[in-house]
Amino acid sequence: MDITKLWPITWYSMLLLTIANIWHGTNGSAVSLISNNIDSILTSHELVIVNFYADWCYFSQQLKPVFDETAIQVKQLFPTYGQVTLGKVDCDRETAIAQTYNVNKYPMLKIFIGGKMAKGEYRGQRSVEALVTFVQNQLRDSIHRVYMMSELNSMLDMKKSNVIGYFDIEQGEDFNNYNKVSKLLRDDCEFYAVIGEASKQERLNDVKHTYANKLVFKPQSADESDIQYPDESDIQYPGSMKDYNYLTQWMHDQCIPIVRVITFQNAEELTEEDLPFVILFHHPGALSEKVPNVLSRCHTKRRTDTQGRPHPSFGMTPTF
């Protein structure tokens, strides 16, 4: 047989194999992310966990086989392309990527949902079992479905802030963007979707006499026994839900208050937000009522001014 006749087939097969390895990792292990592929991979997957590492770092060396094995198991559990993948960045080689994502230690495990980086990194146990469980939890549904308006008040969790979407159908660009952002902010807000006929009255525009999907933010109630919806404190989303970037920023501003209580668990996460930071140290029980009231006004202000510059974050911590 003339092996030269096989060359086109062999070349084509090698090309397909190379592409598969770039996108899915060799043998299902974590995908190597570089400047040429990182943006496309982050935006084409619902969830991406990225290991930012340095080869010379002892802890990076310890994590590498664990992370690669996790990637293999995750791919077996979620084989559908675009659902989830695990990626890795060699920060010594890809210095621009490390700088873009504020990598200041090794290894760092960062979470990306719908192409957006979550506010906190993974801080759990670095074992295959723990990482796989974390991925499963991140992919679970984050929206409470409501099919009767009479059910809504009893479902609202007033220990948290709530976001309520009113949708004609449970699909389409509006709903898909809402779903992505709900997973990004699931630890900070509770998300609800009123679907179909139950949402019709809320979707009605009285002026234009047309129907459109609608989004409302309901802040945490100071008095959990007084649950009313709607009420004067509710804030309606002013933009188009098709604008994913604006939708993400608006919901981030509503769900994550500027004034937060600093604890041992969240202190490192808060300082990594790369914003000016003001901390109020106070004695337990001796905090003047005027101080938190003044700081709490920041809850209603955006994190950036009209020129795009960041406002400072505020934190309160008791001293003993």
Question: Brief description of this entry?
Answer:
This protein is of the alpha/beta class and 320 residues long. The protein has helices at 7-24, 38-44, 58-77, 95-100, 128-139, 152-155, 173-184, 200-203, 244-255, 267-271, 290-296, and strands at residues 31-32, 47-53, 84-90, 108-113, 116-117, 143-146, 161-167, 189-195, 204-205, 210-211, 214-218, 235-236, 259-261, 277-282, 313-318. The strands form 4 sheets. The chain has a 5-stranded mixed β-sheet, sandwiched between helices. A 5-stranded mixed β-sheet has the order 6-8-7-11-12. Strands 13-15-14 form a 3-stranded parallel β-sheet, with no helix packed on it.
Regions with little confidence, pLDDT below 50 for 5+ residues: 13-26, 224-229, 299-312
| Number of domains as seen in the coordinates | 3
| Oligomeric state of the chains in view | single chain
Which band does the percent of strand residues land in? 15-25%
- Number of distinct helices: 11
Give the helix level as a range of percent. 25-40%
The rounded distance between the terminal residues' Cα atoms is: 85 Å
Q: Major sheet, described briefly? A: 5 strands, mixed
User: Over all CA atoms, what is the radius of gyration?
Assistant: 23 Å
Query: What is the top-level CATH class of the largest domain?
Result: Alpha Beta
State the secondary-structure class: alpha/beta
Explain this structure.
This protein is of the alpha/beta class and 320 residues long. It has three domains: 3-139, 3-Layer(aba) Sandwich (Glutaredoxin); 143-253, Glutaredoxin (3-Layer(aba) Sandwich), CATH 3.40.30.10; 259-318, Glutaredoxin. It has eleven helices and 15 strands. The strands form four sheets. It has a five-stranded mixed beta sheet, with helices on both faces. A hairpin with a 2-residue loop joins strand 4 and strand 5 (116-117). Helix 3 (58-77) packs across helix 5. The longest helix has 20 residues, at 58-77.
